[in-house]
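Annex B. Sample input.
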Amino acid sequence: MTDKTETIKAVFYDLGADLCGIASVDRFDDAPEGFHPCDLYPQCKSVVVFAKKFPNGLFDVSPRIMYAKATEINLFETDRIAYLGALGIESLGFTAVPLPSDNPYEYWDEERREGRGILSMRHAAMLAGLGNMGKNTLVINEKYGNRIAFGAVLTDALVPSDPLSKRLCPENCRKCIESCPVGALNGITVDQKKCREYTHGTNARGFSVTQCNTCRAVCPMGKGCM
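Annex B, continued. Sample output.
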């Protein structure tokens, strides 16, 4: 790890990130057109990806209220860290662009209820060595499992990529697939229409609620393996 790598990662850990990894732009060669880091910021040389973990207790209770609120807080935290982290990188003499961890984004297929962030945080996390994707399409990290959310910052600082993670999803496990109440998982991808229409809604008061987080809760790697 270079001094530059340590200095940049320290910025994000000091802001409260639980994980931090870096991927150079050459790792994104397979990104769909319009979703490559250089499509967003042509001078980008590296992508700094970080994570905030969820409290494990959230997965022992109904997700309807507590998990819904925690997700809102976690997304606010990742956006906060990205914004301040970009300023921290710029204080080191580079240029940085903070990305929204979830919304807003432009791509939306109404018929399929499919949305895509301006950069896939899950794929960026994998390319930065923070984990590998499970059959539930959630990234599994060795230390924190899949109970994490990701944020990212683009920068013109040229920083070496972190080593890629090994596969952590148990080969013969199908718990997430078989437990999904709407059959939205096939082990490779997720049917966003089925998932969104069942999972997200509002209560009688008009507050946002989350009906389901089963694929996270039942995963035997949910808490990691360390």
